[in-house]
UniProtKB/TrEMBL annotation:
Gene3D superfamilies: 3.30.70.100. Keywords: Metal-binding. GO terms for molecular function: metal ion binding. It comes from the Bacteria. CDD domains: HMA. InterPro entries: Heavy-metal-associated_CS (IPR017969), HMA_dom (IPR006121), HMA_dom_sf (IPR036163). Residues 1-63 form the HMA domain. Coiled coil: none annotated. This is Heavy-metal-associated domain-containing protein.
Amino acid sequence: MLEFEIKDMTCGHCASTITKAVQAIAPGAELDIRLDNHHVQINGAPDADAIETAIREAGYSPVRLS
């Protein structure tokens, strides 16, 4: 499991954009997005660096927690 804090993720549109970015490179990934604390947990995505890059390219600033 990967976990990121994404402080600039503030709404449902942000969550949708991040979901699409992650699933574009890891189609089987499952995301648990919590807007209240800006956390995203991702299961089924083997390459943490690629996921972090995809989120950055979508316009967000992820900080890897695990």
